[in-house]
Amino acid sequence: MAGGAGAIGASQVRLLVRLGAKVVVADLNDAAGQSLVAELGSGCVFVHADASSEQDWTDVVSTAVSRFGRVDMLSNSFGIAPQSTFADLSYEEYMRLIAVNQTAVFLGIKAVLTPMKQQRSGSIVNVSSGAAYRAQPYLFAYSASKAAVVAMSRDAGVELGAYGIRVNAICPGGTRSELNTATTTAWARTRPSYDREHAFDRHPLGRIGEPEEVANMAVFLLSDAASYCTGNSYLVDGGLLAGIRP
Ligand SMILES: NC(=O)c1ccc[n+]([C@@H]2O[C@H](COP(=O)([O-])OP(=O)(O)OC[C@H]3O[C@@H](n4cnc5c(N)ncnc54)[C@H](O)[C@@H]3O)[C@@H](O)[C@H]2O)c1
Questions:
Q1: Is 209 near ligand 1, meaning CB less than 6 Å away?
Q2: pTM for the whole thing?
Q3: Cα–Cα distance between 153 and 150 in angstroms, integer?
Q4: How far is the CA of 63 from the centre of ligand 1 (A)?
């Protein structure tokens, strides 16, 4: 579980462990990752990893193989969402965002291919965003990276089906997490019209999503229950892309 210390990642880890899976939690956030592993016991191990580092992916996969013998699933659930206008985002900031949100997904898929191809089975879920389909203020680079994750998941699903490996993306809408709080806090600071208290009032379901609700979809796709699902992306957005309340 890459990004396993975050809200959506940790919710998947808890659910997977409850269902009997053994999980490697990989994340930059050592404190949160170690505390999650301490909570969940021996079915879970933490590895400090920067998902944009190919060497770190090698370490994550070799830990999974040495500790648990195989790699059945990969969830890419990390991400960053710095806000900026086109004019203000530097080349370096743009490239870092692409390295984490987009290139790291490629590196993760590549890293698990050897064991999954040998097993002739595997399931990969990449966490994209509703922003892949709908503009969000000052998040153009984030949106571009998330659209790339949808496209990469589709192409990987097509290429890897021959090996019994399924690849899908999920696209959450606003979901309670540190990343979401940072985004809405910045919007409240920079956009006088943004009403944080009532931001979800006109969503069809009228509320923010909980990380467990996103995790349910991710774990479904990771599991054999989704055995005929590949190359697709699945919205978990409270209906926002469908429309707003009348
Ligand atoms: N929360 C939302 O509203 C929302 C909406 C749509 C999509 N998403 C996506 O969901 C995913 C999970 O985000 P979240 O909402 O749980 O936020 P979060 O901040 O709780 O978790 C993000 C995690 O990613 C980790 N991370 C960041 N950069 C990393 C790197 N280079 N290597 C390894 N780990 C790294 C962080 O340490 C953190 O644990 C992200 O891809 C995000 O873009 C979130």
A1: no
A2: 0.98
A3: 5
A4: 22
